[in-house]
Please model this.
Amino acid sequence: MNDVNVDSKTIKNIHLEIDVTPTFSLAAQQNAYPILKSIRIIYSKSEDCELEPLQSLKLELKGIHDWLEPEEWHIDRLESGQSINLQLKELRFPFDKLFSITEEIKHELSFELFSAEGELLNDFNTTVSVLPANYWGGEERQPSLLAAFVKPNGVYVESLVRKVALTLEKAGHGRAVDGYQSNTREKPYLMLAALWNVLFQEKLAYVSPPKGFAKRGQRVRLAADISHSRMAACLDSSLLFASCIEAMALNPVIAITKEHAFAGAWLIDEKLPILTNDDPQDVRKRVDNRDLVLFETTLVTNDSPVTFEQARDHARTLLAEELESKFVMVIDIAQARAQSIKPLSTVEEKKVEKTSDEETADLELPVIPPLPPVRKDEQVIEDTPETRIDTWSRKLLDLTKKNRLLNFNDRAVAIKLYCPDIATMEDMLADGTKFKFQSAQESPYFDPSRDSEVFRLQTGSDVHREFALNQIKNKVLIANQPIKKLEKNSVELFRKAKNDLEEGGSNTLFLALGFLKWKENPEDAKSYKAPLLLVPVKLTRRSAKAPVYVEQLQEEEPTFNLTLIEFLQSEHDINLSEFKNELPEDESGVDVDYVWQQVRDAVKEQAGFELVEELVLGSFSFAKYLMWKDLSDRLDDLKENPFVKHLVDNPRDPYPQASTFIERDEIDQKLDPATVYTPLNCDSSQLVAVDASARSQDFVLEGPPGTGKSETIANIIAHNIGLGRKVLFVAEKMAALNVVYRRLEKAGLDHLCLELHSNKANKRAVLDQLNKAWQKRKGLNPKEWETNVAELRKRKDQLNSYVRALHAKSKFGLTARDAISAIALNRDSLIVTVNWQPDIDAAPISSEKDLNKARELIEQLALAFSDVKELNIQAFAPVMATEWSNVWQSRLLGAIDRWQKGKREIEKPLSVLLSNFSLEKTSITLNNLKLIEGLHDLAVTASKHDISYAIDSGAKGRIEVIREIAKLKVEFDAAIDEISHGLTSENVSKVPVENWRKLAEDANTGWFKSFFRRRKINSEARAIGLSKLDNLSIIEKIGKCQQLQLDIEAKLRDIEGYSIWLGWNTQPECLEKMAELGDKVRVWVSALVNLSDDPTEVLIPLKKWFIEGREFIEESKVYSTSEAYKETLRKLVTDTSELHDMGLDIASDSELSGVDQSLSEICSQASKLKSWCEWQSAKSKVAGLNLESFSQALEAGRVSHEDLAEQFRVAFCQWLAPLLIDAKDELRQFKASSHEQTIEAFKEVDERVAKITSEYIVALVSDSKPVQGENDNPKQFGVLSKELQKKTRHIPIRSLIDQLGHSLLDLCPCLMMSPLSVAQFLPSDFRGFDLVVFDEASQMTTWDSVGAIARGKNVIIVGDPKQMPPTNFFSAGGNSDDPDEEDLESILDQALAARLPLKRLMGHYRSRHETLIAFSNSKYYENSLVTYPSSETKESAVSLHRVDGIYAKGAGRNNPIEAKAVVDEIVRRLLDKNESKKSIGVVTLNTDQQRTIEDLLDDARRQNSAIEKHFQDGPDKEPVFVKNLESVQGDERDVIMLSLAYGPTELGAKTMSMNFGPLNKSGGERRLNVAITRATTEIVVFSSFDSSMIDLSRTNSVAVEHLKHFLEFAEKGPIALSEIASADHGVDQFDSDFEEAVAQELRAKGWKIQTQVGVSKFRVDLGVLHPDKPGKYIAGVECDGATYHGSPAARDRDRVRQIILESLGWNIVRLWSTDYFVDPESAIEKVDSKLREILETEMKQGSVIEQESEPETETETSTLAQLATLTSESESHESEEFVDGNRSEEQVLNPSDYFKPEYSDRLRQLAREVLRERPGITLHSLALELANLHGLAKTSKKQTDYLRTLVEHFAGIKENDGYSPTLWSSPEEVANIIEWRGLDAFGYERSWKELAYEEALGLAKFAQAKSPASPVDVMFDELNIKRRHEATISKFNEWIEREKELASSKPAI
Model:
């Protein structure tokens, strides 16, 4: 948010961070844009004092009149140093308000945070601008909402589309407007052209847009508005076009420049991956590829005809490179719809369509320009199993122009070579010749005047040809590129080939010999080039200064472009299949001339095709082709694997399989260590996966960053090999394969794993490995295995049994550990005891519920005690409440007062009613008052109904008769309805039923009678009014109906005289209601009658008022009095109920006068209420549990009531603890020393079993492996024997594997391959694997994976769905930064979609500081990762390095200033003695920034030869890498520098683009997660902007939102993460009372204790701070509490965890609660003793480091040393042999010359030069400088003494006791004191121990002058010393004293 809109003040360390959308509109609300985006409350800690937690906070948002209702958030608790995110509430503005406003208005949102007491802690005010409904906010305000104004469903739009259909029909193209269904580009093009013609005919008028609309937006004319007004600005017309285009089922786009807008559409069913793309280069590429058409929409308003082609051409000019500065963005409407941005919902009135009155000439549809066909992958096809496999095949065989093998772009990074004799050059390469490159500009015949570009040698004279031929002989290739471009491209190709090999496992560097030039259509002007022959080569260079050489890869054969063969065959029916398998050869290599001639012959008939003889070194990838070939060869076999079959047939359905997994906490119980083969460290979550891997099941193993995924895979492989299973391990990245292989190599199982990662697999290496596997047979004796496993099982059970016993819950819900904890903290304060028998079963309570009840009774007892003796029991008898409070008492007294008032109020109406109804003698009780209320009910009823029938004599029977009549009437009505035939209640009685019965009986005797009898009956029926009776059976029903009528009439006599029966139309429901009403009246009357001894006394007035006077009842006094009575009674009853609810019970039969007196007495003695409420009941209940000792202690004054509950808790635990300990042998017999010995024994045997596991696996495998040399070996091994005997000309690896068949897996049960090498080396029928393990599966597409998966029975998909998705980065010509390149679905995504079981690795072991993973753990892993705290106390290892950089948008896409800052920091660290030990990696967001940093690093390496070694691979240290987001997954370094690159495009800009390249893609947050989780020690974020510049209202990208939050995290530290509370110093958080007791006792012994160290689920119980090093913990004290018990297995608990903590610098000391319970003092003494031992050891080590006076150690290479190195004058780089990567081209002096006599002058000269540069340095410093110049890291006493003899002849030397002599370049310069020169006087930071004695005195002088009071402090600051040891302070004081002596001895002036 912009600061100008925010007004926030901070009170009491409370900060409000509220992110509110600054701009809002109807479109925003309808598309679910939130007004509130985040609310964070931060409670920062204070440096001055400890802050208390805040309770019951409330955040209020004030309402806005007519716009917004107030909202509230409640926060229960907030700790100091904590921040929380509040759950967002949806704020909605009223639709009518948003729709009706006509101008932008501003609303202020006001937030206020209140404490529990109502104190205002903080407020926050911000402004929201609300736009009119028809206003688009522009680039700065929710630009993506422009898509909401594209409305395809309006009336006007539909009419235009209808005209488009007619236009198409008229032109003979049919009237179908069917989107992309034609699967051609031509039909969409025609639709767009027809739309253009239709809109041109509309004769719209053009109006100018508002200035700056692209930035700030404008009011939009929707289609309906344009239809009416006939006017449109550029944005209006673009939206109209886009609406029509979307209505035609095409995908529209809208392009925005600074002052203009125009539209376009896709010709294929595609969309941009980024909704708002601000890079014109990307858009141009799509337009030029003819995938996207843009056109100038305002030309449709021209008076003279303008064609669609003209509009299209004009739009293309607006994208020209020279106009890039004006380009703003393209908004893709289809992508907007995919992101749920819907058209604006408004009511559009149907308007009369208007057309132009002027006559216009009809525009003809244009001739369709040449357009490429729609490829299959671009077509709209149904998703079926068949098309799915076809899609996989097409994804692998890319026959599009995106493939560099078919379309080699001249702008691609490559080296174009001029070689007059390509065949000779190819022969030389084949013979192993290395060539270097020379630019044509370096030719002696180069003439720059002839051409402004590089002279084109291939068109030159014979002189140039002769020169080039001679250079070939000299092993030099001429490049047709300038010198700088040649150097740049060669380095880039070198880097790319190296990176591709590491990431994709294949060589991508080839020398292309000849190209096929081809066209899509013969008439096209544009042509494409495809390489023909490809010679695999590699580039080498020794250092950054050395030149680049090219040589052929001897292990790979030259090949023809196989993708081109398939393309020509499928697309053009040109057959070049003769070159598929082998190439024709001449004497030395490929017969190039023959191949070229064959190609020429094959294409000679194809127009637009020709062969060009060009030679290019470039990057090409065959990987996908080989995988396609493998897949296509094995299509029939794929479905033999169930999972692959599922992916083909039903990929979205759940995968049906039975799967079983052991849970983490079941491992020790269910897993037998004898059957688990894990030679490497393995925690419980890893072991779950290892165990599951051996079952016949497929599952997903999620491996978040740093969770030991590679180690787990290695264990899975080892375990399965041990079980006799065959494993295929597949990883695309070489690094991922190597790290697993190295772990297995470390375990001694590497010979069982054949590594075949593409070109790494050279024939000789494979044979050597197979030979090694064949020969190695030694293994472990099974008996030794069983013995060790039995020991491990025993130790594990011992440890687990103790933990189980200690933490087993008793029936009271408490563990022995709980009881011990309570006693530990409160042992000395216990006064009262539980006097129960020492027998759990004999206790008066038997469950946790009983214990809780007892605890509650104790609390009640305590509360009741304060004033028990003074209570007046009789006075408070009505009070039944058992809980008291001041509020309650106040409310009670108030309620009593209200009750008494209510009683007085009811007396007046009551007396009137009593007298009127003769009830004066009635007893006034609550029951009777409620009965009297019936008078009001009677009055109300009588006013509406005549109730005499319910009061008169016989009312009961009368009401019953009414009810019976109602039932009969129901039956009667139903009978009438059933009979129908015109029968009614009036005529039913007229029917002569008896006569008709007789006639009906006669009718049954014969047909003749039947006719006449029926006729007679129907005749009579007509007379009555009935219709014809066809069925005479109806007569009986009529008879029944007549009887019902008679029954009703009989009963009506009983209710005559009452207005109840209203004739036969009376409804039964009305009768029933009258009966119900009568019942109610009788109840009321009966109640009133019972109040009197004489009923008639009551009945007479009742009849008088409610029967005789009912007409006037409403106006009567009785009616009004009864109403008043009812109201006052209701109030009295409410008041009585209120008293009852508060514990004061008024008996319903009590006289109210007596109650009134009691209540008055209670009020007068209100102070006694508390005692009565609490004491009496509590005391008797406590006595029932044999706990009288507690009430006795209260009465005796031995304990206060405040402490009573705690006394009971501790007393109960004191009674319980020994009983629980005695009940378990493990606890009763526990001894700390024995238990720790068991732990050590367990660790030893666990480690031993891990070590011998490998040997046992070897033994198990050897049983099934053939013995080398024996005759009965399978025949396949004869082939291997033969190959092993050969020296050269081995058969290809694929052939060897083919001939060995599955026998290969008997030698090497595990093959480690990339997807490419699987396709490359494994025969199509090779399917012998039991298990396939896929690593980094999130980066593997399904089509890349299924070929390998299908070779096994089961698969484990290993990866992380929160990390990198697959991309086309490593496909042919792929580019991660290209927004056109969408992310692909991975095999991991498919597996999760199929709902394969998912197991996650939980322990994070990479980060040496928890903050390195804290952000990802919070954002992506639900804080589920278990991380381990660092032994350092620094708050964060993530920092932000803000740079004033500028992002070069467009072609550059880099940030050179930021890149330089990164490189400067790298160089600084590499030259720093301490920092250089840490490995460094750089991660960039795009490849352009990566290249920029790599180039600057190369420059730095040339200038600083000392850093070159850090860029070379070594056994102990990984080299510096620079990678982008797409290639960094799987890598790690100590320090990661993240260069964001993106940022402001102008210096000082306040805003910036929200386009962050790959991050803006869907799933960009996965990329961010990868980038920020690569570091083990530190992350440094280099950014040219801060978090405040990321405006989330301008982007929908989740990744950009997360980037903003990550920058906040880097800026502010962990507090920026909500819900994260770091372990702040001084804030105690204890796991239990036990830890608190231990902390108190250790603090009493002088230790500084920090509790619960850590931020994740795992915490160190107590961190002991180093007394002299505040930034470090000396040790961690671990108790056996929840953290210890929480570990699911013994290995996690007692081995793995300690290994991790010790690796992070912790010393772990354990304290056992059982031991402490028996003897607390001794237990604490042991811990104290161990801590002092650790401290003493550390002090000794620190002293050695700090006080080392003879620096025989490494020191950093000084700037002078770097500059003084001598470079060789010879062209040493001409040598073709490699040298050690740690040596640069610059050559240091030869150390072997140091003591040679003839070398003394040179050494003396060097010494003199050094002393001139640095006068007044020590002899030791001089010796060390010269040693460095000679390539030595150290100096020696011999060197120092020798150097002294050399310099004595010229140097000034001053001796100082106890110090190395000080030297100057001449005696004249010698001085007694050297003025302080600063720590970096010589260009680098010196160590204070290097200072000469005289300069040390100068420092002392300087310090005293600066701060006479504390000069030592100044000296520490000047020397940048952080740690202050006594020895150092003493030395500084000595210097100060000596300087004072020297000053005082000087003569006065």
In short: The chain has 67 helices and 45 strands. The chain has a mean pLDDT of 81. The radius of gyration is 47 Å.
